[in-house]
Amino acid sequence: MTLELGFVTQTTMHYTSAFPAAKAMEVEYVELLLDGHHERQTLDPEGVAAAADDHDIDTVVHLPFAFDIASPYEHVREGAIRELSATLEAASTFDARKAVVHATSNAWGPAWDSEPVADGVVDALDELQVVAEEFGIELCVENIPGEWFGLADFPRLFEATDVSMTFDTGHAYVEGYDAADQAEFIADHRDRISHVHVNDVRTQRDDHVPIGSGVLDFGTICADLEDATLSVEVFTPSYEYVGTSVNNLRRQVAALDDP
Fold it and tell me: For the chain, is the Cβ count within 10 Å smaller at the N or the C terminus?
């Protein structure tokens, strides 16, 4: 079992502080959210590469939110694919290992049947997978609750494409999967689950609270993972809370090898 730890930057976290924080936490990588001040046109790729190299920390990226990759409208869809492709190219300049993307669409529910939209999600991800491979990046598709493509639909995605998965623990809980259910899903699909967004929950909402402050047992959830990166994703501007989460997760992961 090789489980590497890292964390997702929040909108208030700049890469210039994230890499030193990661070094202090003794994690393997930083997952940069490429949105807001890290949007590709304002980001300094050479600066990111230098910071990562200076601190001996790898880089994963989270592609920007709110792009409608499966819009029923041709120009909207094509624009979303172009922008995400350009972001993948930018991420390749600082050797990002993986890129997280959402499996979703903003198509208006009352007007569109779910099946064509879900087909569009699959087609778009297949297209982005080709681009990611071109730039040497592993595309990892995240489960998003309450959208066109739920966790139960991922076997269809695995069948139709070669993408990897980002399994989000909090999102799965929102969809009704407790720790045991999540562990079962991971055991069934661990060959495709390369990346995990690790966040705790107190209610069946997208809380993203610090690890150990909610109801999820990550030892149970991660027991059948083999080789994966585990990103702590906590909605906080505080590296201290992120570090506490990393340490709590590290203890639970260590117990898998030494129960």
Answer: C
Distance CA 95, CA 90 (A): 9
How wide is the angle at C-alpha 197 spanned by C-alphas 193 and 198, nearest 5°? 115
CA-wise closest residue to 18 among 29, 4, 3: 29
What's the whole-number mean pLDDT along residues 245-252?
94
**What is the C-alpha radius of gyration for the chain, rounded to an integer number of angstroms?**
17
**Mean model confidence pLDDT for the chain:** 94
Please return the burial class of 190, using the count of CB atoms within 10 Å of its CB with bins 0-12, 13-18 and 19+.
middle
Q: List pLDDT tens digits, range 87-122.
A: 999 999 999 999 999 988 899 889 998 888 989 999
* Cβ 205 vs Cβ 197: under 8 Å: no
Question: What are the CA-CA distances from residue 195 to residues 12, 33, 40, 168 (Å)?
Answer: 23, 15, 22, 9
Strand 58-62 relative to strand 29-33: parallel, antiparallel, unpaired? Answer: parallel
pLDDT in tens, 147-160: 677 899 999 999 99
CB 20 within 8 A of CB 57: no
